[in-house]
Design brief:
This protein is an alpha/beta fold. It has helices at about 15-30, 40-45, 55-70, 85-95, 135-150, and strands at about 5-10, 35-40, 50, 55, 70-75, 100-105, 125-130. The strands form two sheets. The chain has a five-stranded parallel beta sheet with strand order 2-1-5-6-7.
Length: about 150
């Protein structure tokens, strides 16, 4: 059974964001029968903690390396304007010939330009689930369907 190294990129600054990342990673692993081996950004960031500070340069370099080394990247693109670090990673991935990238948006609000996402992100395969009653397992299923359109899982 083929396994795919998968990276979730997105905001990790609040407990809610970190909890969402953990729940999504668990749902993706379970629903793919562990064919997706998911790496979380908050786990990666902990490698660069020195005391109560983070080595931001080392984090940036690691994010750049990861942006094109993973076979699948799932980008969380929430909010009125998507996280700048996530957008940087997407651009870096695109510029270095990265593999499959899936953008995820559950936010029902429009972006600052009146569309679902910033115009610079329209080249990313998107999964939209703007329902206020949707669940993480439903979202994981939609992501897996998007991946299956591009790869045999």
């Amino acid at each position: 059974m083929r396994k795919y190294r998968t990276l979730i990129i997105g905001s990790l600054f609040t407990l809610a964001e970190r909890d969402f990342n953990v729940a999504l990673a668990a749902a993706l692993a379970k629903q793919s029968n562990n064919r997706l081996v998911v790496t979380l950004p908050q786990i990666e960031a902990e490698k660069f903690k020195k005391g109560d500070q983070y080595d931001l340069e080392a984090i940036r370099l690691d994010c750049e390396k990861n942006a094109f080394e993973y076979e699948i990247v799932i980008a969380i693109l929430e909010g009125a304007d998507c996280d700048s670090g996530t957008c940087y990673e997407l651009g870096y991935r695109a510029g270095h010939g990265g593999g499959l990238t899936i953008g995820v948006r559950t936010d029902f609000r429009q972006s600052e330009n009146g569309s679902r996402v910033n115009a610079m992100l329209t080249g990313v395969e998107m999964v939209y689930l703007p329902s206020p009653v949707a669940t993480v397992p439903e979202l994981a299923n939609m992501i897996l369907l998007a991946i299956e359109r591009h790869k045999k899982l």
